[in-house]
Specification:
457 residues, alpha+beta, 6-stranded mixed β-sheet, 14 helices, globular
Length: 457
């Protein structure tokens, strides 16, 4: 699917719309309406509640798109955005009040208070969705809805869509095209507003403080989960409901498992430990990775690998500025790391051939970064409307995280490097004339790290 054109210069900004509405979420809905046009309608459904075991459930987190547009945090809800509707451009389906349930599970907003608490122009009980949604969709040409995220809700929406189309026989048209939110809402979410940048600064600052405590409390003999607890204690103490994703604390060869979350092993003297953790504060998350020596000092081979990854990361950061293509960041990391791997005898040269043949991928197998925001892997296309590489713009926030991993099961690796895994990840904001490293408060120069590790024990 080709994304629609970017907003034109005449499209109101979120700040202008917020001044008109007095509400951040209403301003976002107005911006979305400008993108949709009066022939479009958009639906955003709440995440389902997920069972954990028997009669217990995972802590609920709202759907990112729904929260971004409404600030509504409850399950069993659905928002309908109807641009240009003279009476109800924002309709919300939600749960009724129920004192018997609320005594057990907490207060609900309820239909009667939806206007006051959420800004809904019209609200209905969620059990009336099948009856009322077809009439709301009727008269619109296209529907924006993300299929495939919740099968049960998909079924309800498709039934409503069919119902709206049947109304055509009564002289009203119904949506004939269903489109993903990528080119509409997700393009809005990609470039952060000042309010969002402020929120991300807060989340990254808490994340950074957690990493710093982790470094200070590290010592041989502690477990990975103890180190995780030290870091996440800081997160919760500073207002995070939870980490933005499961924390990765991998010592020794566990650092070579990219999404290692078991976190049960013991940190041994002479090992490195890789920590990838970020705090979610007010639904925005940090995402920082640091790798440090358990005993407080890098040995020669560890330092050689670490210096290579740090050099690659710094080369990428120096490139970041408006107008640079996204793909150039990964190309720069690949170039630097491949040069280092050839020098170390890990892959055969020349460098250009190693890059062409992708032999570097046996130890550097992932991308160099991803968008960051409400979701840790935030929304937004990495290509533009012409399917070319995305060009960086002020307000974009993303990670830069090259890594090198010498997994024990990987063949043809120098024996003295086996079991070493290093990743260094920072959170970067594109500014008008360059970039700002939001996570600069966490040491990453080797000497700085050695000065910190173990000092809190």
């Amino acid at each position: 699917m080709t994304a629609p054109d970017q907003a034109t210069a005449s499209e109101p900004t979120e700040s202008e719309l917020r001044e008109q509405s007095g509400d951040l979420h209403a301003a976002r809905r107005a911006r979305l309406g400008e993108r949709l046009g009066e022939d479009g309608v958009a639906i955003f459904a709440a995440n389902p509640v997920r069972n954990r075991s028997n009669d217990t459930f995972y802590a609920y987190r709202p759907n990112s798109d729904l929260w971004y547009l409404t600030g509504f945090e409850e399950p069993e809800a659905l928002a309908v955005v109807l641009p240009g509707h003279p009476e109800h451009p924002f309709v919300l389906f939600l749960r009724d009040r129920d004192l018997g349930v609320e005594i057990w599970d907490g207060e609900r907003v309820g239909v009667e208070r939806a206007r006051e608490h959420v800004g809904a122009d019209l609200a209905f009980p969620i059990h009336e969705l099948e009856e009322r949604l077809p009439r709301l969709l009727a008269g619109r040409d296209r529907l924006v809805y993300g299929l495939g995220r919740d099968e049960a809700m998909d079924t309800r929406v498709i039934r409503a869509l069919k119902g709206a189309q049947r109304l055509t026989s009564r002289g009203r048209k119904g949506p004939r095209v269903v489109m993903e939110p990528d080119g509409f809402l997700h393009e809005m979410r990609l470039v952060k507003t000042p309010e969002e940048i402020h929120a991300l600064r807060a989340a990254v600052a808490v994340s950074a403080e957690g990493h710093l405590r982790g470094m200070k409390m590290t010592h041989p003999g502690m477990t990975e989960f103890e180190l995780q607890a030290e870091i996440e204690y800081v997160f919760h103490k500073n207002g995070a409901r939870s980490p933005g994703y499961p924390s990765i604390v991998g010592a020794g060869p566990n650092a070579c498992v990219l999404h290692y979350i078991e976190n049960r092993a013991t940190l041994m003297e002479g090992q490195l430990v890789l920590v990838d953790a970020g705090a979610e504060v007010d639904y925005y998350t940090g995402d920082i990775t640091r790798t440090w020596p358990v005993s407080g000092r890098f040995d020669g081979y560890q330092r050689e690998v670490y210096d290579l990854v740090l050099r690659a990361q710094m080369d990428v950061i120096r490139l970041v500025r408006p107008g640079v293509e996204w793909k150039e960041l990964h190309k720069a990391a690949v170039q630097t790391i491949t040069e280092g791997l050839v020098d170390m005898g890990v892959v055969d040269g020349p460098v250009d051939k190693a890059i062409e043949d992708k032999t570097f991928r046996k130890v550097f197998m992932h991308g160099t970064g991803h968008w960051l925001g409400i979701d840790v892997h935030d929304v937004g296309l990495y290509t533009d409307a012409d399917e070319g590489s995305r060009t960086l713009e002020p307000g974009m926030v993303f990670t830069i995280e090259p890594g090198v991993y010498f997994h024990p099961e990987q063949e043809d690796l120098p024996s003295h490097l086996v079991g070493i895994g290093v990743r260094i990840e920072d959170n970067v904001l594109v500014t008008e004339d360059g970039c700002e490293v939001l996570s600069a408060g966490v040491p990453k120069e080797p000497e700085e790290i050695e000065d910190v590790v173990g000092t809190g024990v």
